[in-house]
Amino acid sequence: MKAFFANFYRNLFLTNRLFAALGVVAVLFLLSFFLKWLGDIPLICFWVLVVVTLADIWLLYRLKKGVYCKRLAPERLSNGDDNEVNLFTENLYPFNIDLELIDEIPHQFQKRDVSFETKLSSRQQKMINYLIRPTKRGEYHFGMIRAYVKSPLGLISRRYNFEQTDILPVYPSFLQMRKYELMAISNRLNEIGIKKIRRLGNSMEFEQIRNYVAGDDLRTMNWKATARQGALMVNNYTDEKSQHVYCIIDKSRVMKMPFDGLSLLDYAINASLVLSSVALIKQDKAGLMTISDKKGATVAADRRPTQLNKILEVLYKEKTSYTETNMELLFSTVRKVMNQRSLVMFFTNFESLSALQRQLPYLKRIAKYHLLVIIFFENTGLKELSEQSATNVEGVYIKTIAEKFVYEKKLIVKELARHGIQSILTAPQNLTVNTINRYLELKAKQKI
């Protein structure tokens, strides 16, 4: 009995409508001192209010469970994307109710106002959905669902607590990966910014002999098959397959810089996952390496059906460190793991030309054995400052310094090109599109 009353007291809340009614009764009692003709009207109003309040309590507490709520969430969340969460609710009362739902979302979002108000008729079911956008990988703990119910009288509110402590892992952006997968399969990558690359020459990988169609390259004509069939026949070539494509991700302090809630490491991880997916669709072999001051994870290049899941599981656990990149260790690992010429996409960041000079000797040695593409990031904040007009001396100084750093990024691109190393300088939000464009370009030009 004691537990019942304790639970009753904790879940009983007074509404603004009740306080307004009490205020009216109090005013009537006050006026009755000056207006004798009011007589017992204030007292009658008070007891009517008490009776109605007790009736409201009886309506809400007559059933042990008057509402049902459940959270319907995906098994895992996609980092940096909008993920949909659904709240299912059902009214078990024999009358209409006003319902307020509060979902206790993970503390990483720093939001305590995820509440929804709705009206439900008797026995009605409703689905409420909302979006959450995680910006860090790891485990996200959801708390309880709290439902506040009011009857048509609306004088009190009863709270229901639904224990549903879901723990959802946040993985690299698999939603983005699926989007690019569908586009690649249906040859519609150009709809999301992927350029169509003009082929230079023919691939050397023979596919089949087929009938000549107007517009075919006459250099692919198969004269022996033409003589046998009595009709023009041409050789059909396809993209070379089983080429090794490796993504190397720098996990050092240079990748900890934030942009739009995500770190540069997270952008690199999301882009690596999408690039690996597209490479596997193109029937190439995708691999992965991570590096900081110590050797990180390594996934040998392969194109088995389980390869993408293996890469996804590895990327889920990666975190940045506050150390410098050990380029000597990277070079030795590359020589040990990559047994044949591969396309190496190295995700890192340089803020100054001197930072590049320290790593350039090792990058040149890697480029000697593999096709190396250095991918680093524009500082969008400095770029915006350099494009603003200066109105005073301080503004001129800030603009000049910003332009200096922006120009130094361009010098890094030229310095890499001078040593025969390709590079991509991109804003974080354009990283995935620019990376896939370069991969398709190199594949079309048969440089891998």
Automatic annotation (TrEMBL):
Presence of the UniProt keyword Transmembrane in the record: yes
InterPro entries: DUF58, vWFA_dom_sf
Transmembrane regions listed in the UniProt entry: 12-35, 41-61
Residue ranges of every copy of the DUF58 domain listed in the record: 208-357
Short name of any one Pfam family annotated for the protein: DUF58
Keywords: Membrane, Transmembrane, Transmembrane helix
Highest taxon above the source species: Bacteria
Protein name per the record: DUF58 domain-containing protein
Native source species: Mucilaginibacter myungsuensis
